[in-house]
């Protein structure tokens, strides 16, 4: 063999120099193409299946070839340089593939990672042709165990690529297809020309040893009729050896001729299997050796003997089409108990998602009759047993409408674009437009039912706004116990499919994974507000005049601002704003209201929510103060005081005139420009940056303001000092003023028990306040002085503690204080303070000197709740609609996510669960923090796109499950690969029912829309390797049987396809020997 | 402050945080790392509230500015100090190997940390300080390691006094942060885009 190769190449070189005729040139071009693709000596060249894994990255041609050749049995041959006369166009460049003859062929685009086609231009007599080497990955996929692929009817679409129909018609995975080049003058190749072209290939095949068939189109392009030829020099092969064929000489090649017949209206006798079987026998020129014997038995059946027919193998594939019918309630969830009950508490309809209409376009059922001797199947003019129910295998395919619309993502888009429109119009509009005047006139306009909203006009029905406000503010009476902010309906788990999928993160939890404090708690006040607002632009909305999201947001927000101020004024907690940070599901035992809970502002949520929490914290302080001092609040029975529990009564504090918030409120409602407000805030913060109170460095101030000091609140070291509460809680005996002794310590000087004083409750800060403070600290620099300044700025609380300690423990020393406050700085053995505390210049000592013995209740409060509440309110007032939106956008997305994740489909479909998990990942990774940090705009399109993908997947699952109730596994498989084998049993019954019902009217199973047959016979009868893998058949190609690549002796084969009242017949007839 | 001119050369500013019970030597660690000197905890005044130091370090040829926040360990300061957890990219939980209580307190500190920054946002490191006091050691290295393993944090023992392991601790923490760009990197502002304003007309169009 090795010598042969060398000879061939030498001959080739030699001919190249002497040839001059156009035909010879043409042959040379073909040969160089074949060599370029490695199609020599029976090699598959660049498409060597052993080197073509089912999923592979794109390699360039040389690499592929190098790999392929190395793997071939042929000795490595030096690659001839690319022929100069061949087209310089690189193989598989897209521009060359779009030949008109390929209309049905590969619609490849360059983005596919796998290349299954190489093109080259060849020229004969000035006519250009595209020669393409095409590969169908079916066998490779089987070999790698990827899936089951029908080898008798190769799928025209695999791996997302459309493959040439010839693959299906011939059952061949490697073919060469010639077509007229796009720029060619004549697109039609007449019969004479086709013959000449084929002859050229026959010679080229002889010269190169290429055994890949070539197909040349003839006649009308759209008919896709081809003639073809392949020459298979017999070569030694394991299987051949087994079959005793090794005696065949090299020159006794097998020539296979291919032919296509397209008959528009075939005669009736040729429309059934019996008819075309006779045609097959006739066309293939098969001699009925058994004719005499068979005559008696089968006289009526065309005269061919049973024995002959038994040697003809038939497989068939019937396709049934079912167009989806209109189903208004397609999204109705079959498992009703799961769906509707859980949400019945909510007043709002669920957010819709998925497409508007049933996304299912049609379904295709393929009934596959496995390869069997033709006598097995009965299909003649009068009698047939070939209907779907008899088929060995059913394959169901679902075809969905193009994904163009997703309700949920459109809602998001609407919301976002109404915001961008607002931002744009704001930029364009005159500054005056957004001034006070506009804002001020808001209420009156709203009453009239319409309102001019900053540059854009939106109709907002006043009653719609009122309804929302009512629901938010009054449906839950403020006296009701705070509703858990993060309780979410527990996910129902269906054991069926849960195993394959990771956990789906519920919306409440996902919000905490968002980047930096960007969402609001699940079911909190703002969450509910957003539910209403998003509902406004949802198609399900009951709103009277749907309008832009921003329009409504601003109308509602303006109304809410009034309400917030009112809550503060009435000292009534804003509902659904939990100041105890009940964020985890486990803690919805709010009714029990454990007294140890301490109010705090949860930084994990966004600033708007923090500000509302601040207001509630301030209200709680005020309520606690009033409770301590009954004279302040005659109606102290208010059950809304969450921090009131566990507070020992205090000495009466002087009455603080209740501040009338009217004045400030008026100005707030007038909505000064946000700039003014921020400026004010900043100044205020600069003055009082530390310790969340207005008094930072002003220890002295304390004295004058003492009289006005508001009631101190409970001691409450609770939440953050387990050690001390442990020590204190036993409360052996109460000292004066509710004091408790600390351990058994005695004062150093007097020997009195060391008492834990009542301390001022610590203040609350929102994130922005901390940031300001942090900035201030940083700006001080890192010098020693700066450190001292910082310590001073933060010493107010320490001083307060010291003062209270002194008051509680007359005659105490700093040592006593340290023993309680910083026990590690007290050396019990030596009975003295640690060196750092004892140091003469120690700042603690300095403070100790300053601190005046005063019970906490008489000290100036560290936390000026009145001031802070006003500040929070003014912050809220200062936010423009656009700023509000930016703060709420992450929560809007979370809300939309909730709509998907709370649908039961996510628990039954791993596909749905997977896409929801991906969505969760996108939401988690999105840089929300930057959206908030600046005016910088972010590209939200990936988020929206992911939403769309998720809702569409979920929509499809819902749609299919409506057709095939409870068939979770079937639906899952269809969605995964777009088609699936229907298992016997309930799945088949279910599919049969759907196809029989076929909508409202039909009751019978439909007629096949397409019937395909493959008939094969082998001469001599050898081992036909045709099979449907896994199906009963004569032979089964084991997935790992790579020798089977060459082992398909393509002898006599006929493919017939009945569709649309025409029949296409593609025949392949093999002949021994060469008769050129 | 010096931000304006230093930012031009530093790649990023990283916020680190030192927490742990009082007297574990947080301030000493910081001083050792930033100033290269050692003052026994006895000699450094107990921190009131929070304080910070700045250090610019070189990692792979790039400069990073570290603002390291030191916190008071006393119970009474917790509310104040915990406010500063947010936004930190790295947290060092310090305990004293010669003081079991400070080790036992770690869980409390850790829980608190969890409330204020989720694990995705911050690199955590447990540091056992004062290994120079080997004779009075109360917490074995093994115990420290196991605890860190349980909480899935970095772990190292060091001594601010002998400076053993201090530099390495900070280096490792910073390296981990740098290796997780999502913790600190801002998205390139060049190609960010607003959702297209295609619907602008639609909304201005309904003006009647």
Automatic annotation (TrEMBL), chain A:
All residue ranges annotated as the Rab3GAP catalytic subunit conserved domain in the record: 734-876
Biased composition (Low complexity): 86-95, 630-645
GO molecular function: GTPase activator activity
Pfam families associated with the record: Rab3-GTPase_cat
Keywords in alphabetical order: Cytoplasm, GTPase activation
Gene Ontology CC: one annotated term: cytoplasm
Disordered, as annotated region: 70-110, 627-735
Subcellular location: Cytoplasm
Main location: cytoplasm
Pro residues composition bias: residue spans: 75-85
Family, similarity comment: Belongs to the Rab3-GAP catalytic subunit family.
Protein name: Rab3 GTPase-activating protein catalytic subunit
Organism annotation: Mortierella hygrophila
The organism's taxonomic lineage, starting at the top: Eukaryota, Fungi, Fungi incertae sedis, Mucoromycota, Mortierellomycotina
The gene coding this protein: RAB3GAP1_1
UniProtKB/TrEMBL annotation, chain B:
SUPFAM superfamilies: P-loop containing nucleoside triphosphate hydrolases
Catalytic activity, as annotated: GTP + H2O = GDP + phosphate + H(+)
InterPro entries assigned: P-loop_NTPase, Rab, Small_GTP-bd, Small_GTPase
EC numbers on record: 3.6.5.2
Gene3D superfamilies, per the entry: P-loop containing nucleotide triphosphate hydrolases
CDD domains: Rab18 (cd01863)
GO biological process: protein transport
Listed Pfam families: Ras
GO molecular function, one term: GTP binding
Sequence similarity: Belongs to the small GTPase superfamily. Rab family.
Name of the protein this chain belongs to: small monomeric GTPase
Record organism: Mortierella hygrophila
Gene: RAB18
């Amino acid at each position: 063999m090795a010598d042969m190769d060398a000879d061939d190449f030498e001959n080739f070189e030699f001919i190249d120099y002497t040839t001059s005729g156009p035909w010879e040139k043409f042959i040379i071009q073909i040969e160089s193409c074949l060599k370029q693709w490695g199609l020599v000596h029976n090699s598959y060249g660049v498409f060597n299946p052993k080197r073509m894994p089912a999923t592979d990255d794109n390699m360039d041609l040389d690499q592929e070839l190098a790999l392929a050749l190395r793997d071939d049995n042929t000795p490595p041959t030096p690659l001839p340089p690319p022929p100069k006369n061949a087209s310089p166009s690189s193989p598989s460049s897209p521009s060359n593939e779009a030949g008109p003859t390929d209309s049905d062929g590969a619609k490849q685009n360059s983005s596919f990672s796998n290349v299954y086609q190489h093109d080259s231009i060849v020229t004969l007599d000035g006519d250009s042709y595209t020669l393409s080497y095409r590969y169908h990955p079916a066998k490779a996929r089987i070999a790698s165990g990827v899936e089951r692929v029908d080898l008798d009817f190769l799928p025209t679409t695999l791996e997302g690529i459309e493959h040439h129909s010839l693959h299906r018609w011939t059952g061949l995975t490697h073919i060469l297809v010639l077509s007229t080049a796009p720029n060619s003058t004549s697109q039609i190749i007449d019969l004479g020309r086709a013959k000449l072209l084929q002859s050229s290939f026959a010679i080229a095949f002889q010269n190169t040893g290429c055994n890949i068939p070539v197909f040349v189109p003839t006649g009308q392009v759209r008919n896709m009729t081809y003639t073809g030829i392949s020459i298979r020099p017999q070569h030694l092969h394991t299987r051949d050896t087994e079959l005793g064929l090794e005696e065949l000489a090299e020159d006794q090649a097998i020539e296979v001729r291919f032919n296509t017949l397209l008959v528009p209206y075939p005669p009736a006798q040729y429309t059934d299997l019996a008819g075309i079987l006779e045609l097959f026998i006739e066309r293939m020129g098969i001699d009925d050796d058994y004719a005499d014997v068979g005559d008696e038995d089968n006289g009526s059946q065309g005269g061919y003997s049973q024995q002959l027919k038994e040697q003809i193998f038939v497989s068939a594939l019937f396709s049934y089409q079912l167009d989806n019918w209109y189903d208004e309630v397609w999204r109705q969830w079959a498992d009703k108990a799961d769906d509707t009950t859980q949400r019945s508490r909510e007043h709002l309809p669920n957010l819709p998602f998925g497409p508007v209409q049933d996304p299912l376009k049609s379904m295709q059922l393929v009934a596959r009759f496995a390869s069997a001797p033709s006598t097995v199947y009965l299909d003649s003019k009068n009698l047939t047993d070939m209907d779907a129910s008899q088929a060995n295998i059913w394959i169901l395919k679902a075809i969905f409408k193009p994904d163009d619309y997703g309700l949920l993502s459109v809602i998001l888009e609407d919301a976002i674009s109404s915001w961008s429109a607002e931002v744009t119009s704001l930029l364009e509009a005159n500054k005056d437009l957004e001034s006070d005047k506009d804002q001020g006139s808001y209420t009156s306009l709203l009453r009239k039912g319409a309102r001019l909203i900053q540059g854009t006009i939106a109709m907002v029905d006043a009653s719609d706004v009122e309804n929302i406000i009512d629901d938010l503010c009054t449906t839950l009476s403020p006296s009701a116990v705070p509703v858990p902010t993060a309780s979410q309906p527990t996910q129902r788990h269906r054991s069926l499919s849960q195993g394959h999928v990771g956990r789906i993160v519920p919306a409440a939890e996902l919000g905490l994974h968002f980047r930096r404090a960007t969402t609001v708690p699940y079911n909190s006040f703002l969450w509910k507000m957003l539910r209403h607002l998003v509902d406004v632009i949802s198609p399900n909305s009951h709103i009277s005049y749907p309008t832009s999201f921003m329009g409504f947001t601003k109308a509602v927000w303006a109304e809410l601002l009034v309400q917030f101020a009112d809550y503060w004024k009435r000292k009534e907690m804003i509902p659904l704003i939990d100041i105890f940070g009940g964020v985890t599901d486990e803690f919805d035992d709010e009714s029990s209201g454990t007294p140890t809970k301490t109010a705090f502002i949860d930084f994990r949520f966004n600033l708007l929510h923090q500000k509302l929490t601040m207001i509630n914290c301030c209200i709680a302080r005020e309520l606690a103060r009033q409770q301590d001092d009954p004279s302040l609040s005659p109606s102290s029975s208010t059950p809304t005081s969450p921090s009131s529990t566990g507070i020992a009564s205090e000495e009466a504090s002087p009455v603080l005139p209740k501040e009338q918030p009217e004045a400030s409120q008026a100005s707030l409602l007038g909505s000064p420009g946000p700039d003014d407000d921020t400026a004010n805030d900043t100044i205020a913060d600069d003055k009082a940056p530390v310790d969340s109170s207005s008094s930072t460095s002003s220890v002295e101030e304390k004295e004058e303001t003492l009289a006005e000091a508001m009631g101190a609140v409970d001691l409450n070291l609770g939440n953050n000092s387990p050690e001390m509460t442990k020590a204190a809680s036993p409360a052996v005996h109460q000292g004066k003023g509710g004091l408790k002794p600390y351990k058994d310590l005695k004062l150093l000087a007097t020997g009195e028990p060391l008492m834990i004083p009542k301390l001022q409750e610590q203040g609350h800060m929102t994130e922005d306040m901390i940031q300001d403070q942090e900035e201030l600290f940083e700006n001080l620099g890192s010098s020693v002085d700066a450190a001292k300044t910082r310590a001073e700025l933060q010493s107010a609380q320490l001083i307060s503690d010291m003062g209270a300690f002194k008051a509680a423990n007359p005659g105490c020393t700093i040592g006593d204080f340290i023993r309680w406050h910083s026990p590690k700085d007290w050396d019990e053995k030596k009975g003295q303070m640690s060196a750092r505390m004892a140091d003469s210049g120690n700042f603690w000592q300095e403070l100790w000197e300053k601190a005046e013995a005063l019970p906490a209740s008489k000290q100036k409060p560290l936390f000026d709740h009145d001031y802070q509440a006003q500040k929070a309110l003014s912050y809220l007032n200062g936010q423009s609609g656009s700023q509000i939106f930016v703060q709420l956008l992450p929560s809007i997305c979370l809300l939309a996510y909730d709509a998907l994740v709370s649908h039961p489909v996510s628990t039954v479909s791993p596909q749905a669960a997977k896409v929801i998990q991906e969505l969760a990942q996108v939401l988690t990774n999105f840089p929300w923090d930057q959206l908030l940090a600046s005016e910088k705009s972010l590209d939200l399109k990936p988020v929206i796109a992911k939403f769309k993908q998720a809702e569409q997947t979920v929509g499809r699952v819902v749609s299919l499950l409506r057709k095939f109730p409870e068939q979770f596994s079937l639906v899952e498989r269809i969605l995964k690969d777009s088609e699936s084998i229907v298992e016997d049993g309930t799945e088949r019954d279910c599919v049969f029912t759907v196809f029989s019902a076929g909508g409202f009217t039909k009751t019978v199973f439909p007629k096949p829309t397409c019937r395909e047959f493959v008939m094969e016979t082998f001469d001599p009868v050898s081992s036909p390797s045709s099979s449907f893998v896994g199906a009963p058949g004569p032979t089964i190609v084991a997935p790992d049987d790579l020798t089977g690549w060459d082992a398909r002796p393509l002898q006599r084969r006929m493919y017939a396809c009945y569709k649309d009242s025409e029949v296409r017949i593609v025949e392949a007839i093999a002949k021994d020997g060469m008769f050129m | 402050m010096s931000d304006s001119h230093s930012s031009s050369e530093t790649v990023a500013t990283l916020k680190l945080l030192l927490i742990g019970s009082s007297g574990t030597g947080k301030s000493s660690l910081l001083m050792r790392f930033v100033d290269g000197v050692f003052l026994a905890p006895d000699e450094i005044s107990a921190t009131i509230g929070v304080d910070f130091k700045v250090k610019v370090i070189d990692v792979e040829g790039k400069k990073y500015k570290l603002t390291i926040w030191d916190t008071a360990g006393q119970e009474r300061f917790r509310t104040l100090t915990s406010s500063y957890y947010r936004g930190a990219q790295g947290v060092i939980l310090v305990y004293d190997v010669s003081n079991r209580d400070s080790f036992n307190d770690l869980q409390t500190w850790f829980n608190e940390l969890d409330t204020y920054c989720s694990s995705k946002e911050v690199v955590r490191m447990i540091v056992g300080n004062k290994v120079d006091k080997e004779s009075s050691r109360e917490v074995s290295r093994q115990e420290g390691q196991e605890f860190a393993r349980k909480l899935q944090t970095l772990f190292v023992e060091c001594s601010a006094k002998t400076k053993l392991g201090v530099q390495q601790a900070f280096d490792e923490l910073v390296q981990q942060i740098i290796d997780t760009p999502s913790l600190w990197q801002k998205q390139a502002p060049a190609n960010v885009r607003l959702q297209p304003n295609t619907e602008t007309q639609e909304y201005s169009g309904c003006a009647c």
